[in-house]
């Protein structure tokens, strides 16, 4: 059977303006498509098409999800057949143009997906359920017409035409949707609080700060389908009675900002944003619903993803969290009732209204409904953007969708939830993806980052990495978050450098407890999680570092012994010249030798050796 | 001779005037807009490259707030710079995905090649190297950005080569 997305696309040839004659060629130009050389491929395509004067429409789209295959080029023919090429380079364009574009013979060995045959990469999509990503990688994100052709702004029209604000909120409550920003608070309930709050002026905020390093779900949605987020916000604003909103986007996402600005301008022109929304389309007297939407660019501070800090930042202050209550629903931006949700939360809303809350609630587990987007990265064979129904297991995502571990190595753990989350060991791969099950492991669902670790990852070092991050990002308001994390970092650093002492583990537990309980915001309250989960599942690695001065994963440099394999060494002298302590001796073209007494374990020789002759133990 | 000595003086004065004019235009654009401090600082930095003490004084005066308040904001957010940067900005990602895919070695190779410290600028003023947490292209890890261009699937050698080609 063909995965759903293909079906949709087959139908979109005409919707997208296909003219029955020529082919449509689509280049994936999400951030990672561009990074992989998408623009160069696009230029090569333009050149090849123009030189042959072919009647081809060249278009762009956002993230398809198969980031591991970038650069991706889709070819649609007038019969609706789809051919997806992966790993396209400018050099490969020539053959695509002669064989496929000109002579109609698809280049089969470069195909990664096709509506005409089943290919290995189909399993990447088989278990996915695309609600949030329904348009990502299919439409041109800069085209309102293409969004409209795929039911865009129909949910808004339905709400304004046929539903009272209370009914909108009820529908979201019935769907069981929970916030996708991390904590999983029921969205409908949050809206109800904001609706019920006293006050004429109310604000709506979309949290696109996406601070978790190693996650790119919100970026892909904002870049790939900006109108969905805007439509979701409009419906929310109608529900709670807000007339002004902010989209807060992370500083590092310039492309998302650009596409959002264009989408807002286009939606305003078309009457979906601004005064009397859809007025002329609805009734003669016009709709009474108005909504102004602003884009705010973040300025680089992880803590600004926390809702109260984010609002302080919009107000132009230092982004420091404040005590709640009062919750934003009663006193938020500029002291007014405010509703704040994550990008993905809003992106679900149009689908829920169009397909009905029940269709959403039918997916998932008892307490976690619908689907969740994950960014698969790290040591996974097929890294990219996936959306799966809640209730699927972690193992299914990693093995069946992600294709297992890169380079045939062993799966060790998966990091979920970023700096606030934890490491789930391979032995718990059958854990279901729902808020409660993931929380039970000590990690959190988080916003959707899944960084996969293989046997070469040192878990103490991973914990140290996250503590280094949170320690730097602490806003400094709470003593334990500011100094406690620093102490924890010092202990972890010391352990990875072979200076761990008996009692360090107990000290870490003690500090973790204090940091958790005496911090004001989620950053401090969850900062110890990466340490606690690695201690829970990989305590023996900590002990090996501390007691035996040994790093079982062979990662921590200071705990390694460097030796030169005399069979592999060609005597090129590269290592000896790189060694800062002159620990390596040997004659040209003779195997070299490392003097252990002088070696400071800097690793330079490993990096310099082109014959892989320097081994570590 | 005396003429050529005068010239630079004059052009400095002009540069200051241009700066004041530029900042004035930005301030006017946001006049009356609530919470505009951050966008004003972002645009000023964009136009001038960094936020020097003189720039901050001018902006504080224009906004009618104490300079200390502006400094508070500037030093809180990592995007703002008090010092000018090199001709090219090289951002090396040390986010989780890049970290587990060898970003440390890539980062070291870059610092070694350019003979510069983390966050520093090369002696010839050509490069500033910064470490960042996630550029959002995690599936191409490890990743770096040179000016506006992102490069993925790096190895220490590829990173060195890319820098030589700039
Ligand atoms: C330190 C910290 C960082 C956060 N970062 C984000 C973020 O990047 N994106 C996000 O949507 N929520 C983030 N949150 C959660 C927000 O505070 C808030 O709960 C969320 O935006 C609510 O939206 P939701 O109900 O739709 O999930 C963060 C929270 C904390 C404590
Ligand atoms: S817990 Fe940390 S980040 Fe949060 S308010 Fe306190 S010091 Fe700031
Ligand atoms: S690890 Fe460093 S100090 Fe030791 S032999 Fe290699 S280059 Fe020399
Ligand atoms: S960004 Fe291109 S497939 Fe993900
Ligand atoms: S972790 Fe490096 S790009 Fe995301």
Structural summary, described in words:
The complex is a heterodimer of chains A (617) and B (166). With 617 residues, chain A is an alpha/beta fold. Chain A has five domains: 4-120, Glutaredoxin, CATH 3.40.30; 144-360, Rossmann fold, CATH 3.40.50.11540; 371-454, Ubiquitin-like (UB roll), CATH 3.10.20.600; 459-547, de novo design (two linked rop proteins) (Up-down Bundle), CATH 1.20.1440; 560-616, Alpha-Beta Plaits, CATH 3.30.70. Chain A is built from 25 helices and 18 strands. In chain A, strand 3 (73-76) and strand 4 (82-85) form a beta hairpin. In chain A, helix 8 (165-175) packs antiparallel against helix 9 (187-196) and helix 21 runs antiparallel to helix 23 (529-548). The relative contact order of chain A is 0.08. In chain B, strand 3 and strand 4 (149-151) form a beta hairpin. The longest helix of chain B has 29 residues, at 2-30. In chain B, helix 1 runs antiparallel to helix 2 (37-48). Chain B folds into two domains: 15-76; 88-165, Glutaredoxin. The model of chain B is unreliable at 1-8 (pLDDT under 50). Chains A and B meet through helix 2, strand 10, strand 14 and helix 19 of A and helix 2, helix 4, helix 5 and helix 6 of B. One FE2/S2 (inorganic) cluster binds at residues 28, 30, 32-33, 63-67, 70, 72, 384-385 of chain A.
Gist?
The complex is a heterodimer of chains A (617) and B (166). Chain A is α/β, with parallel strands linked by helices and 617 residues long. Chain A has five domains: 4-120, 3-Layer(aba) Sandwich (Glutaredoxin); 144-360, Rossmann fold; 371-454, Ubiquitin-like (UB roll) (Roll), CATH 3.10.20.600; 459-547, NADH-ubiquinone oxidoreductase 51kDa subunit, iron-sulphur binding domain (de novo design (two linked rop proteins), Up-down Bundle), CATH 1.20.1440; 560-616, Alpha-Beta Plaits (2-Layer Sandwich), CATH 3.30.70.
């Amino acid at each position: 059977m063909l995965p759903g997305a293909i079906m949709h696309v087959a139908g979109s040839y005409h919707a997208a303006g296909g003219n029955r004659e020529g082919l449509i060629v689509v280049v994936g130009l999400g951030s990672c498509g561009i990074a992989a050389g998408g623009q160069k491929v696009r230029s090569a395509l333009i050149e090849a098409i123009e030189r042959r004067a072919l009647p081809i429409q060249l278009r762009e789209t956002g993230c398809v999800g198969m980031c591991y295959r970038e650069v991706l080029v889709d070819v649609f023919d007038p019969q609706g057949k789809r051919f997806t090429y992966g790993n396209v380079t400018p050099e490969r364009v020539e053959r695509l143009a002669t064989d496929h574009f000109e002579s109609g013979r698809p280049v089969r060995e470069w195909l990664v997906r096709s509506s005409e045959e089943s290919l290995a990469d189909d399993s990447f999509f088989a278990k996915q359920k695309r609600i949030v990503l329904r348009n990502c990688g299919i439409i041109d994100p800069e085209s309102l017409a293409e969004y409209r052709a795929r039911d865009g702004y129909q949910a808004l029209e339905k709400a304004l035409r046929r539903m009272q604000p209370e009914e909108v909120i009820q529908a979201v409550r019935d769907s069981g949707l929970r916030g996708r920003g991390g904590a999983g608070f029921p969205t409908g309930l949050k809206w109800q609080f904001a609706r019920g709050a006293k006050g004429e002026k109310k604000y709506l905020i979309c949290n696109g700060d996406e601070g978790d390093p190693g996650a790119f779900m919100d970026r892909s949605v904002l870049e790939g389908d900006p109108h969905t987020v805007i439509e979701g916000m409009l419906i929310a604003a109608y529900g709670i009675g807000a007339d002004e909103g902010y989209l807060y986007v992370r500083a590092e996402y310039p492309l998302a900002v650009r596409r959002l600005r264009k989408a807002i301008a286009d939606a305003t022109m078309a009457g979906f944003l601004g005064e009397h929304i859809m007025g002329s389309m609805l009734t003669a007297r016009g709709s009474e619903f108005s909504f102004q939407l602003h884009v705010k660019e973040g300025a680089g501070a992880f803590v600004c993803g926390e809702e109260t800090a984010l609002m302080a930042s919009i107000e132009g202050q230092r982004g420091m969290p404040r005590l709640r209550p009062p919750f934003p629903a009663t006193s938020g931006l500029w002291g007014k009732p405010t509703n704040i949700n994550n990008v993905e939360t809003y992106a679900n809303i149009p689908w829920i209204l169009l397909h009905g809350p029940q269709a959403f609630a039918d997916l998932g587990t008892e307490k976690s409904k619908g689907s969740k987007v994950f960014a698969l990265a790290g040591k996974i064979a097929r890294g990219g953007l996936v959306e799966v129904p809640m209730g699927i297991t972690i193992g299914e995502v990693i093995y069946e969708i992600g294709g297992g571990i890169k380079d045939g190595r062993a799966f060790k753990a998966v990091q979920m939830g970023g700096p606030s989350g934890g490491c789930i060991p391979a032995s718990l791969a059958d854990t279901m993806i729902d808020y409660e099950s993931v929380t039970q492991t000590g990690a959190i669902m988080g916003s959707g980052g899944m960084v996969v670790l293989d046997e070469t990852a040192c878990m103490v070092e991973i914990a140290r990495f996250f503590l280094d991050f949170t320690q730097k990002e602490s806003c400094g308001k709470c003593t334990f978050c500011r100094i406690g994390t620093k102490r924890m970092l010092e202990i972890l650093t010391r352990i990875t450098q072979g200076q761990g002492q008996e009692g360090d583990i107990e000290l870490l537990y003690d500090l973790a407890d204090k940091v958790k309980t005496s911090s004001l915001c989620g950053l401090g309250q969850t900062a110890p999680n990466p340490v606690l989960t690695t201690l829970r599942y990989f305590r023996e690695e900590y002990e090996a570092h501390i007691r035996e001065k040994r790093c079982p994963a062979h990662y921590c440099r200071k705990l390694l012994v460097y030796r030169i394999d005399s069979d592999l060494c060609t005597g090129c002298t590269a290592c000896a010249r790189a060694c800062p302590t002159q620990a390596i001796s040997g004659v040209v073209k003779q195997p070299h030798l490392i003097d252990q007494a002088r070696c400071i374990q800097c690793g330079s020789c490993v990096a310099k050796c082109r014959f892989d002759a320097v081994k570590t133990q | 001779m005396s003429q050529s000595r005068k010239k630079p003086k004059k052009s400095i004065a002009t540069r200051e005037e241009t700066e004041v004019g530029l900042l004035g235009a930005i301030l006017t654009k946001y006049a009356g807009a609530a919470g505009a401090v951050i966008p004003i600082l972002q645009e000023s930095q964009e136009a001038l490259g960094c936020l020097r003490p003189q720039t901050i004084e001018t902006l504080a005066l224009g906004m009618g707030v104490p300079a200390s308040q502006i400094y508070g904001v500037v030093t809180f957010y990592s995007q703002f710079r008090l010092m000018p940067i090199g001709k090219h900005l090289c951002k090396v990602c040390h986010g989780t995905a890049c970290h587990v895919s060898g970003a440390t070695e890539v980062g070291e190779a870059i610092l070694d090649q350019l003979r510069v410290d983390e966050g520093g600028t090369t002696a010839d003023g050509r490069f500033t190297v910064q470490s960042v947490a996630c550029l959002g292209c995690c599936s191409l890890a490890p990743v770096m950005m040179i000016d506006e261009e992102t490069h993925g699937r790096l190895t220490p050698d590829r990173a060195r080569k890319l820098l030589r080609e700039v």
